[in-house]
Task: inverse folding
């Protein structure tokens, strides 16, 4: 029951955010808002697919290909948004620090492989690594303005919350609010409107 | 049981003759239509094969495997056209839409031969719903092709991501399409409503710019 409530809340937040971002994309003809709307829409459809399977068949999909693809798409749209809103300075060297992103996701992928599938974990590690790499590079790379450094920080926070969510799901089970999985899920849900505010702030800057 | 390849031959033969006789834009349109039907046939074979090797029941494969296979195969003729012929944007976009129409046509004919032609209302919803769903999925990818066209990395990542979005939309539609009653009605109407809304918005937008 609690899972349904948390997922429904996430879908509702995502749909509202999709509406706002799409309206802004149309009125401003802004590419960043379009990426944001697609990110929300993709994530919402993935959640909706998961929920629809539960509602009509009483179980989650045995081959989670479709929902995985929608979440891969969301990460890609987030990466495009990051490149659009906060372009990296190609001339500035950022050292080895950004590679920590790939190291972190690689280590976590090996850990998750003991529970899940190899290929799926590798793809998630690659995409999350890309997001962390790009975000850390933007934070360490140059003298960006304060507003420009907001989105990379939000992306790092988002990735860490995702990893928190996945990790606690390995150790905790149970469908009560005492399960930290739901706390991470709610925090992740709160991250989505934050992206909307950051892109708005960037547009005004 | 229906023999899909036989139906395909009956529908594709006149189109193939037309392709051989015609020239220019009409020929290209007919080729895309034919490609869409061929993609539909191939998708049926590949989906059955994948369902077999993953041990998925056919009723579950409809929403777990089929959408991904159909959308990837449906996109392959357009991808080939883009990579080999380097067409203008508008030609690539209209190509993606016509492929989707060809795909939906063969799928609907196969549905007719399997389910019969007695229930007009269900067939109307099924016909328009499936047709609209394939067009919506085609439009999702085509709009992305238009919007994300200028840079190579955007074109690659964006098109793949939009394809994933189309797959999820297709899968949700398929879940609704296998239901009965009001759920089937609502599910089949969603792509139609989306197309009508898009058409109205586009029309309004065009009239403003004019």
Result:
């Amino acid at each position: 029951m609690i899972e349904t409530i948390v997922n429904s809340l996430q879908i509702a937040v995502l749909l509202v955010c999709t509406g706002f971002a799409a309206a802004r994309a149309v009125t401003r003809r802004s590419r960043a808002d379009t990426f944001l709307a697609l990110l929300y829409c993709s994530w919402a459809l993935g959640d909706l697919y998961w929920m629809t399977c539960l509602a009509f068949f009483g179980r989650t999909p045995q081959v989670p290909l479709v929902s995985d693809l929608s979440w891969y798409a969301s990460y890609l749209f987030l990466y495009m948004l990051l490149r659009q809103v906060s372009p990296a300075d190609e001339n500035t060297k950022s050292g080895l620090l950004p590679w920590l992103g790939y190291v972190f996701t690689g280590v976590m992928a090996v850990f998750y492989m003991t529970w899940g599938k190899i290929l799926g974990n590798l793809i998630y590690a690659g995409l999350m690594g890309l997001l962390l790499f790009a975000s850390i590079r933007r934070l360490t790379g140059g003298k960006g303005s304060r507003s420009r450094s907001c989105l990379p920080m939000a992306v790092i926070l988002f990735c860490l919350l995702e990893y928190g969510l996945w990790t606690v799901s390995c150790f905790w089970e149970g469908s009560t609010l005492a399960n930290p999985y739901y706390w991470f899920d709610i925090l992740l849900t709160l991250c989505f409107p934050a992206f909307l505010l950051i892109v708005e702030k960037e547009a005004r800057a | 049981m229906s023999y899909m390849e036989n139906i395909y031959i009956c529908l594709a033969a006149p189109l193939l003759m037309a392709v051989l006789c015609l020239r220019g834009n009409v020929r290209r349109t007919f080729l895309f239509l034919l490609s869409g039907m061929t993609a539909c046939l191939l998708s049926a074979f590949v989906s059955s094969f994948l369902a077999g090797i993953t041990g998925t029941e056919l009723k579950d494969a409809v929403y777990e495997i089929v959408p991904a296979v159909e959308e990837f195969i449906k996109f392959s003729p357009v991808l080939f056209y883009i990579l080999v012929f380097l067409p203008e944007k508008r030609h690539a976009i209209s190509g993606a839409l016509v492929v989707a129409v060809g795909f939906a046509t063969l799928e609907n004919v196969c549905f007719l031969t399997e389910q019969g032609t007695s229930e007009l209302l269900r067939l109307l919803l099924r016909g328009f719903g499936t047709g609209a769903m394939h067009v919506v999925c085609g439009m999702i990818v085509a709009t992305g092709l238009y919007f994300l066209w200028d840079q190579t990395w955007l074109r690659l990542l964006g098109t793949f991501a939009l394809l994933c979005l189309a797959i999820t939309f297709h899968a949700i539609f398929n879940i609704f399409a296998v239901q009965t009653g009001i759920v089937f009605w609502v599910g089949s109407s969603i792509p139609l409503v989306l197309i009508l809304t898009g058409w109205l918005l586009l029309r309004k937008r065009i009239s403003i710019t004019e």
